[in-house]
Amino acid sequence: MAATKSGPTALDWGLLAALGLIWGAAFLGVEVALGGLPPLWVAAGRISMAALLLVIVAHLTGDGLPGFRTAIQRRIWLHCLGMGLFTNAIPFSLLSWGQQHVTSSFAGITMAVVPLFVLPLSHFLIPGERLSLARVIGFLTGFGGVVLLVGGDHLFMPATGLAAGGGDVIMLVAQLACVGASCCYACGSIITRLCPPVSTITFAAAGLLCASIAILPLAFIAHGVPREVSIASWSGVVFLALLPTGLATILLTIIIRRVGPPFLSLVNYQVPVWAVLIGVSILGEALPGHFVMALVTILIGLAISQRLHRTKTT
C-alpha cells in the first residue's frame, strides 16, 4: 500500500491514537510479566505467541508467508528479518531488561527519542521525507513536553539527580538500554517503509516469525526452561503478545505504509502520556503536578510538526 500523498487522514490519526494507547499499556504488561519471568523470556514469550497467532491469521486470510523463488521475495524476507530484529527482538529484550531497574515512566519517555533518529534516517533514505524546519521545531517541542511530563520537579534539582544517577552504574546501563531500544525502533520503521509491496498481514507474520527464531534460542541459553511461573506473569505475557506485539505490529505496518515513518514516530509522544495515566489509575502512582502542562506541550508539538509542515509544502 502506498503512502498517502495528501497528508494524514482522520483514519490515520485514529490508528495512531490506538497504537499509542496499546504501546502505553505495554509497560504495565512488562512489569506484571517480570514478576515471575526473566527479561529474555518476557520478550521471547510475547514474540513467539504473537508470531504463532499472526502466521495462523495470514494463512486463514489467504495471504500466507512470502515465497523464496524470486529476487523480490527474498528481498521481502530480508526486510521481514530486519523488522523482526529491530522492531521486536532487540528492543523488547532491552526494554524488558531495563525495566528491572528503571521505572515504567522512564522507559516510556525514552520512546520520545525515536523521532529524533527517524528524522535524519528518513531525510536520507526515504524520497520526499525532507527534514523541514517545522518538523524539527514540532519534534523538539513535543520532546520537551515529554521531558517535563516524566522529569518534572527533578529538572529543577539537577544536582540531586546527577548525584543519584552517578552512583549507580547498573541504573545508567538500564537507561542506556531503553534509549538503545528507541534507536532500534527508528531503524525498524525505515526498514518497513523500504520493503517492496507485500500484504500487511504477511509482512507482520513473517517479521515476528523471524524475531521468534532469533530470540527463542537466546532465552533457552540464558535462562533455561521457565519453571513455576505465576498465572499473573503468564497473563502479562499473553497480554503483551496479543496487543502490544501482535495487533501493534499490524497497526504500525499499516501506518508506515499509508503515511510514512515520521508520522508513525509521533506515537512516541503519546506513549509516555498513556504510560503515566495507566500508572496512576492501575499502579496507584501519584499524579505529577506538571502533568497538564506537559500534555499541552506535547499536543502543541504534534500540531506544529504536522500542520505547519503541510502548510509549507502545499
Secondary-structure element order, N to C: HHHHHHHHHHHHH
Characterize the biggest β-sheet: none
Rg over CA atoms, rounded to whole Å, is 19 Å
- Helix count? 13
Provide the β-strand percentage band: under 5%
Number of domains: 1
Backbone shape: globular
Helix content: over 70%
- The helix/strand class is mainly alpha
Number of strands: 0
Unreliably modeled segments: 159-167
The end-to-end distance, rounded to whole angstroms, is: 23 Å
Average pLDDT value?
A: 82
Task: Describe the structure using short key phrases.
mainly alpha; 314 residues
SSE inventory with pairings:
Layout: H1 10-33, H2 39-60, H3 71-98, H4 104-110, H5 114-125, H6 133-151, H7 158-166, H8 169-194, H9 200-223, H10 231-258, H11 261-264, H12 267-282, H13 291-313
Helix pairs in contact: 1-4, 1-10, 1-12, 2-3, 2-9, 2-10, 3-8, 3-9, 4-12, 5-8, 6-12, 6-13, 9-10
What does this structure look like?
The longest helix has 28 residues. The protein is built from 13 helices and no strands. With 314 residues, the chain is mainly alpha-helical. About 3% of the residues have low confidence. It has one domain. Helix 4 packs antiparallel against helix 12 and helix 9 packs antiparallel against helix 10.
In short:
The chain contains 13 helices and no strands. By secondary structure, the protein is mainly α. The longest helix has 28 residues, at 71-98.
